[in-house]
UniProtKB/TrEMBL annotation:
Lineage top rank: taxon: Bacteria
Record's protein name: L-asparaginase
Assigned protein family: Belongs to the asparaginase 1 family.
Gene source species: Hydrogenophaga electricum
Record carries keyword Transmembrane helix: no
Pfam families: Asparaginase, Asparaginase_C
Record keywords: Hydrolase
Catalytic residues (positions): T25, T104
CDD domains: L-asparaginase_II
Residue ranges of domain Asparaginase/glutaminase C-terminal in the record: 228-320
Domain L-asparaginase N-terminal: 16-205
Listed Gene3D superfamilies: 3.40.50.40, L-asparaginase, N-terminal domain (3.40.50.1170)
Length: 327
């Protein structure tokens, strides 16, 4: 439901939103405003991003620079800092919601991680940009403003992503285009809602949060490294050499993005069976940009929950971590 008000962008009373900066193209800087490719991500401080959006001047905001990275380089240390920061701020009664500025490239993995380990009851809204902050017409300022509006919305909860006016849920969001401003899709599920001129319009109700898995959270925050789970793809002319080479690195799991419905080249199946017999957890997903791998009893390897391959890889690593920590 939209806020019923004549004033666009009216701040809900007592609403404080925290904005956590992690880098990305939204904080990118290029030498020339006319070059949308040759820029360095993660350069502009979150306070300067907020200062660049005049409409945010009226919002009660708190800002924290958690990291300043190109999200292709995202990894456990930044994730642990981010999870700690979100947990800390969420626990404050005065905080209505949290916005995270993030690179587009691994945004869906961070979104899945935050949902899985925190199950937040308050909204945690990731936002991003496809053009650097120094572009002639940057998309980051509008995305940031929209994300703050969503984070303050009374119906918002759980981990969401806001980009190009659309609101996506953590489990569905995926980057599906390398260049377009609306680079994200929720696939068959469709977006959860949209932001139009400062008003939120929900298309679907958001699920109630599940009880947080406090043991998984503690194990995640204490882990020196996540369980080693390489991501492989099945393809024409595949052989098993890569799998056999990987076995020398002692992986705990292997996530295989199969063709179509998660089907695998026979040569790969032979090598993966060797891995499975050696105690490695092998799980399948689909390499297709949309749709999912369906369970098939005839296949020796189970399918992941309906997640795309990068999220399924992370899900398997978290499953193994949870098992390792004695659940
Ligand atoms: C990144 O993911 O940090 C760089 C690319 C982007 O944000 O679009």
């Amino acid at each position: 439901m939209p806020h019923h008000t004549d004033d666009l962008l009216t701040v809900p009373p007592d609403c404080k939103v925290v904005i956590l900066g992690t880098g990305g193209t939204i904080a990118g800087r290029s030498v020339g405003a006319d070059d949308p490719v040759a820029y360095v991500a993660g350069q502009v401080a979150v306070r300067d991003l907020v200062a660049g959006v005049p409409a945010l001047a009226q919002w009660p905001l708190a800002l924290e620079q958690v990291a300043q990275v190109d999200s292709k380089d995202m990894g456990l240390p930044v994730w642990q800092r981010l999870v700690r920061a979100v947990e800390l701020h969420m626990a404050q009664p005065s905080i209505a919601g949290i916005v995270i500025t993030h690179g587009t490239d691994t945004l869906e993995e961070t979104a899945y991680l935050l949902q899985r380990v925190l199950q937040p009851a308050k909204p945690v809204v990731l936002t991003c940009a496809m053009r650097p902050a120094t572009a002639l017409v940057p998309d980051g300022p509008q995305n940031l403003l929209d994300a703050v509006v969503v984070a303050a919305d009374a119906q918002a909860r759980g981990v969401l992503a806001v980009c190009a006016g659309q609101i996506h849920r953590a489990e569905h969001v995926a980057k599906v285009h390398s260049y377009r401003l609306d680079a994200f899709s929720s696939g068959d599920a469709g977006p959860a809602g949209c932001v139009e001129a400062g008003q939120v319009r929900w298309f679907q109700p958001l699920a109630l949060p599940e009880a947080p898995d406090t043991r998984l959270l503690a194990a995640f925050l204490a882990a020196p490294a996540l369980p080693k789970v390489p991501l492989l793809t099945s393809h024409a002319d595949a052989d098993g050499d890569l799998v056999r080479a990987l076995l020398t690195l002692a992986p705990e799991g292997l996530l295989v993005a199969g063709t179509g419905n998660g089907t695998l080249h026979d040569n790969l199946v032979a090598a993966l069976l060797e891995a499975q017999h050696a105690g490695v957890r092998v799980v399948r997903a689909s390499r297709c940009a949309q749709g999912r791998a369906m369970p098939d009893d005839r296949n020796p390897f189970p399918v992941a929950a309906p997640l795309n391959a990068p999220k399924a890889r992370l899900a398997l690593a978290l499953d193994l971590l949870a098992e390792r920590s004695g659940r």
